[in-house]
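User: hey, got a sec? need AbiEi antitoxin N-terminal domain-containing protein folded
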Amino acid sequence: MERKNRMSENKMTRQEKRDKQTEQIQTLLEQNGGIVKTSQLNELGMDYRRIQSFVDEGVLERVKNGYYSMNYHRKREEDLITALFSDCVLTMESALYCHHYLKNRPFKWTIAVDKNTSKSRFKTDYPLVQPYYTEPEVLQMGTMKMTLGSREMSVYCKERLICDILKYENRMERDDLQQALRAFIADKEKDIAKLLEYAKERKVLSKVRNQVGVWL
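Assistant: Yep! Here you go:
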């Protein structure tokens, strides 16, 4: 059967082979949130020159080194974030926005990532990303899944998040920090016991007691 398929492919014209590969690329993009890696294209039998020819013709767009897409700038930022950074966790302003603690979506996507991750991953013009490098054992503490665009993304729970914004408050706009704290205090579903637990872990217990505890 495999031999017959090879013979069939050998009889295809160059254009027919190209059309078939284009369809395969489109299918792969649909399965992977609109982004494909070079290694995935290699598995379709495409070497560097073939990939480059698709880029030159406008069929593929290079997102960044090793990543490609179609109609890249027409895609929603949310879908690109989940496709490019599925191993990361939304934190700080981006996570606050997901929890509806901030009204406006931040200009940059703030993402927590293993400190051993290559920094080149985050060099993108669209969407703009601000990485927070952290210890591997701390990265997954207090994560949960939330819908972002058409897929799910790891996000810090509100209690862990409040501890983090107090820990790194000098990196935030003062208005955003105050807005987030007020939203948490007013949140009827907050878990104070969990907040204090994370506050101990993140070494911000005194900050939590001074800035949040007095209002509870």
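Quick note: DSSP finds eleven helices and eight strands in the chain. Let me know if you need anything else on AbiEi antitoxin N-terminal domain-containing protein.
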